[in-house]
Amino acid sequence: MEKSKISEMFRGKKNKILSIYFTAGFPELNSTNRVILALQKSGVDMIEVGIPFSDPLADGSVIQQTSIVALSNGMTINVLFNQLASIKDQVQVPLVLMGYLNPILKYGIEKFCSEASKLGISGVIVPDIPLDEYIQNYQNIFESYRLPLIFLITPSTPDNRIRLIDSVSKGFIYAVSSLSTTGKEENYSELHRAYLSRISSLNLSNPILVGFGIHNEQTFNIATQYCNGAIIGSAFLKCIGNGNNIEGNTALFISKIRGNN
């Protein structure tokens, strides 16, 4: 697989990677591109674009609610791809799509990969694709379109399973910080630290980004002591929830996470 924007990003920056998740089509159907360009202007390293889904596996109440709004607004994979096509040449940071398997299967998995590749998408996260099924049925498709599939690990994932995931991964590994859903604004406990320290000690081939529960400068700094970077979703979605001044609110939010305020 050719080097993607993700690989280039990690080659230029090893630590303190900040990736922001948001739900496409939230707060308004046509907010997607505004949010992407605002995040890029604010200096984030990577952007995770969520494809709204009615029956999510791991999303907490904030992301669930944004998905309901986005679906009500009319967001679909087709609409999202059309929106992304209109700003394709303006986006320099890696864009990663996050969605669940059913809508992608309905769209057509090879068609999905083909269109995403044409749009310059740098990777895809599909939390409910089982690893063995991916290897057997989908790995060749994703790799033929140069799309790394990003796998999640959790505190209950055994070391040998993490090493297997590392062996088939070509972008980064998404370390879920706890066994809860997204959006739990907890302080990082010794259990979180022990888990992240265990992952770090495995000396994996792929970079590690940690998500779930990262919501402010403190939790971002703690998480990135052990991993290459962190992903923030729910806290950012709350910040842009009313749809007013997306650009200004985004800049202020990122500045606070970076510790510039």
Q: What would you say this structure looks like, in words?
A:
The protein is of the alpha/beta class and 261 residues long. Helix content is 47%, strand content 13%. It contains twelve helices and nine strands. The protein has helices spanning 5-12, 32-41, 61-73, 77-87, 101-107, 109-118, 131-144, 159-168, 190-201, 217-226, 234-239, 246-257, and strands spanning 17-23, 46-50, 95-98, 123-125, 149-150, 152-153, 173-176, 208-211, 229-232. The chain has a nine-stranded parallel beta sheet with strand order 5-4-3-2-1-9-8-7-6. α2 links the parallel β1 (17-23) and β2. α2 packs across α12 (246-257). The longest helix has 14 residues, at 131-144. It is globular. 45% of the residues are buried.
Blueprint (SSEs and pairs):
Blueprint (H helix, E strand, L loop, with lengths): L4 H8 L4 E7 L8 H10 L4 E5 L10 H13 L3 H11 L7 E4 L2 H7 L1 H10 L4 E3 L5 H14 L4 E2 L1 E2 L5 H10 L4 E4 L13 H12 L6 E4 L5 H10 L2 E4 L1 H6 L6 H12 L4
Parallel strand pairs: 1-2, 1-9, 2-3, 3-4, 4-5, 6-7, 7-8, 8-9
Helix pairs in contact: 2-12
